[in-house]
Specification:
- This protein has one domain.
- It contains 1 helix and 6 strands; from the N terminus they run ββββββα.
- The strands form 2 sheets. A 4-stranded mixed sheet has the order 2-5-4-3, with no helix packed on it. A two-stranded antiparallel ribbon has the order 1-6.
- The longest helix is centred in the C-terminal third of the chain and has 6 residues.
- It is globular and about 40 Å long.
């Protein structure tokens, strides 16, 4: 997988301690040894296509063949991810895999954060 950038740090997109708003799609990740629970909410979701789903549960499933994909027209500007972590240990950064890493073609053919 060396053809993909490793990680991006999510800054302005990420808001901690927020509650889910109407219209958001959310998925709950249960307790781990480090947190009581995690709630992942997204502002939109691309409808399922060709047997693939694109919901917020893909943000934490650990499978690079899955991805959260926003579901609005255009390039996805303004779409957001909200993460609420309950009773977690302190941390300094959050690493996010940038892009849809299912394959090199999928990565190149889909949007991702990048500089111009």
């Amino acid at each position: 997988m060396s053809q993909f950038p490793k990680y991006m740090t999510l800054g302005a997109f990420l808001l901690f301690g927020m509650s889910a708003n109407a219209g958001q799609n959310c998925a709950q990740m249960g307790a781990t040894e480090l947190v009581t629970s995690q709630l992942y909410c997204v502002s939109s979701v691309l409808p399922s296509q060709f047997g693939n789903t694109y919901g917020p549960e893909n943000l934490f499933d650990g499978n690079f063949s899955n991805a959260w994909c926003e579901g609005v027209r255009g390039n996805g500007e303004g779409q957001e991810i909200y993460i609420r972590i309950e009773d977690g240990i302190p941390f300094r950064r959050l690493l996010i895999y940038n892009g849809y890493a299912k394959s090199a073609n999928t990565y190149q053919g889909n949007g991702r954060a990048r500089t111009h």
